[in-house]
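Repro case for the chain-ordering regression, as requested:
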Amino acid sequence: MAVLTPQRSAPGSGAPERESRRLGFSQRLGRWDVKLSPYLYISPFFILFAVTGLFPLAYTAYVSVHDWSLLGGQGEFVGLQNFSDVLAQPTFWKSLGNTLSIFVLSSVPQVIIAITIAALLDQNLRSATFWRMGVLIPYVVAPVAVSMIFGRLFADQYGLINSMLGVIGMDPIAWHGDRLASHVAIASIVNYRWVGYNALIFLAAMQAVPRELYEAAVIDGAGRVRQFFSITVPQIRATIIFVVITSTIGGLQIFDEVRMFDATGLGGPDRNWMTTVLYLYDVAWGNQHSLGRASAVAWMLFLLIVLIGFVNFLITRQISTSGAAKKSKRKSNTRGNA
Amino acid sequence: MSSVAVTAQTAGEGAARAAARKRDRKASGSATRRAGWVVYAALGVVLLISVFPLYYTLLLGSSDPVEISRNPVPQWLPDLSLFTQFQTVIESTQINFWKALANSLIIAVVVSAAVVLFSTLAGYSFAKLRFRGRGPLLVFVIATMAVPTQLGVIPMYILMSDLDWIGKLQAVIVPALVTAFGVFWMTQYLSESLPYELIEAARVDGASMIRTFWSIALPAARPAAAMLGLFTFVQQWTNFFWPSIVLNSSNPTLPLVVKSLQSNYFVDYSLVMGGVFLVTLPLLVIFAFVGKQLVAGIMQGAVKG
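-- result from build under test --
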């Protein structure tokens, strides 16, 4: 390697020589290299992010207070007119209700099922990688494809689910006609894609739980279920918070699934399953062609996400820390008994 | 608070590994016994549910269009007529299948490469170099991960149409070139796995900063970079929302092809489903090769938070 220059001191570590000698060109270059390089290396991120992340954020606010059409471009300043226009549209409120309903129907079962699958995968399994890969398959299938497939599975007539319901003697459900039923169907599409992914995240956290805790619990006579609730859940609380928050942000922005749930892609005849992001899309690029109003929708959605994320955080922390407190109390009791 | 917990988890990992090794040696004791058949049965059901929708797509794709409209499950085994559907989709002039495949590939490859390069550069800087403002800048990067991207779609669209990029691939590529998650991920990895001694040794040998990055940091970052690349690839390949806004049916990506299948052919469900499977196939093939790493990546990412 290039060890042929023993005379020259390493650039950047030349502090002692500073007074005694004048710097050679290459040394000065070296010093600038050390000083500037870090900024140079982080600059692609910050420059690109400023243009494609930060600027749009601020600009959304600017667009939202202007009359701004898709084809005509910027119009005059209208203040909060766009916001009040949007708030006056019943479809906006309906989309908000749909979003919340689909969000709750998807994220709650998603976390519960994922944590259950993770607990299964956390056992001492033969060919563990095979099972892990198996649960991840849905993740690599594009949501639009998944949605189309499930749209067919949940077809009102001649759908597989309804004909299976027929076999067990139930009436077919109007998956595309009934509002709640459509939400259940769409939530199952979301869950299909994300349960396995989240299960692996939970699994990673579970594997980091010290096995000694389980051994101690077994000695105390705790069963599998008790071990799960008293050791596993409190131990992986940071991961639970992480998954709940990420699924909240994702869950409130559902678009692909609802857009592909039927051939028209506008939330059904009565906008029964139009979510807020789909509504935003429709306002901007669909029938209203108003980028100003769509920006107002974006801001209100953003505030909602922040609000729900915050509430989520508080609740999750409450649940998980109280669980942790109980656990540590129990642990000290155990020690006392022994 | 959560960062403390995450650190605790990472610390616990070594203990868990040791315990797992011990557990393998003596497979006795009720806490450490091998999983029973109930666990395998339950996981088997999960696996069936994971695979079934794709299998069902194959079935619908290889059945007769008339039959499919009367019977939800026309047959139990896919047959060769599936290839006829594939052929129809590939040759259809309305769909642009090859163009979509090429576009998806270009977008996914270019974006993954760029995200990996830029994230490693920035991550190396944040993890190993000293400079003024490092702390606040890193906090800023992490904070931006919480901002939902869809908030900015309208100004981005305005920007893209001002640049006259609507319908062009760069409209999809350029906004995706960097991610805060990538920077955070590489920072985490490099701060743990790249010893300062290696960097200093290279500097003493007279390597310039960029040379040090290129021949020391980049090779050290390879495992994490591979994970980041895989994830970005899957993300871009399955991405629909933004491409559906800035691209059109004459220059589509594969998810957009699914959309146009649905609107152009939705009467002929067997054709649509054959097409959906065909569009899904490339990523399934890739997954067969890299699934293991993808799993490892998710597991690793979870521990690091």
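Ordering looks correct now. Residues 1-16, 21-31 of chain B have pLDDT under 50 and may be disordered.
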